[in-house]
Design goal:
It is a single chain. This protein has 120 residues and is α+β, with helices and mostly antiparallel strands. The protein has one domain. The protein has two helices and seven strands, in the order ααβββββββ. Strand 1 (30-37) and strand 2 (42-46) form a beta hairpin. The longest helix is centred in the N-terminal third of the chain and has 16 residues, at 2-17.
Length: 120
């Protein structure tokens, strides 16, 4: 009887908790806007999710210094074609090797960086 009760107490909670909504799945397709492009970095602001990116980043390279939330530097910029002001959909991906060549200009990018895959 004890063994059956233990099995019941273990399996029933698993059935309920196994049905949780996966938040990351809902946010796996993100919408972003390119807010800066230089030879050293491309900065994207995420428009439809607040849990990604850096908050309070200031674009020190622009004439009018502005603060941005939910921004990141694109790690794999040579694999995607992004233009200033462009809005696009993408997924954050894991990057095992970054073979993108970038210039060494320091342009104060966001501290947060992601590799992305653009979704057509």
């Amino acid at each position: 009887m004890k063994k059956e009760l233990l099995i019941f107490l273990f399996i029933v909670p698993q059935l309920f908790f196994g049905c949780e909504k996966n938040d990351l799945l809902d946010e796996s397709v993100l919408k972003g806007e390119v807010i800066r492009v230089t030879c050293a970095s491309t900065v994207v602001q995420i428009k439809n999710a607040e849990k990604f990116g850096e908050d309070g980043w200031m674009d020190e390279m622009s004439a009018s210094v502005q603060k941005y939330d939910n921004v990141f530097k694109v790690e794999n910029i040579c694999k995607v074609n992004l233009e200033m002001g462009k809005t696009f959909q993408f997924k954050i991906i894991s990057l095992t090797q970054n073979d993108c060549i970038q210039c060494y200009l320091y342009d104060a990018p966001p501290k947060v960086s992601y590799a992305i895959e653009v979704i057509p």
